[in-house]
Amino acid sequence: MPPKNQLRKDDFENAGKEKQETLFREFIRFVIENKKWWMIPILIVLLGLGLLSMLSSTGAAPFIYSIF
């Protein structure tokens, strides 16, 4: 049986070789595991506001302003 520190080193190296999750997938897993369902509407609103602010500086601005 290898020494304890060798096992830790192997675990660390294996974790480094794994494919890293995307931010979206990590967030979804966090919400499911911790049952933080109230975070989803907040994220949707923030993404919508970010999209609206990005589009307001493009040629689509006159069409966005006519909606409101």
Description:
Helices cover 74% and strands 0% of the residues. It is built from 4 helices and no strands. The mean pLDDT is 81. It has 68 residues and is an all-alpha fold.
Helix and strand topology:
Elements: H1 4-17, H2 23-34, H3 39-55, H4 61-67
Question: What's the count of strands?
Answer: 0
Radius of gyration, in Å, reads 22 Å
* Poorly predicted segments: none
The biggest beta sheet reads: none
Assess the beta-strand content as a share of residues.
Answer: under 5%
Mean pLDDT: 81
Structural class category? mainly alpha
- From the N-terminal CA to the C-terminal CA, the straight-line distance is 70 Å
What's the helical proportion of residues? Answer: over 70%
- List the quaternary state of the chains: single chain
The succession of helices and strands, N to C, reads HHHH
The number of helical elements comes to 4
Shape: elongated
Based on the model shown, name its key terms.
single chain, 68 residues, mainly alpha, 4 helices
Write a compact overview of the structure shown.
The protein is mostly helical and 68 residues long. It has helices at residues 4-17, 23-34, 39-55, 61-67.
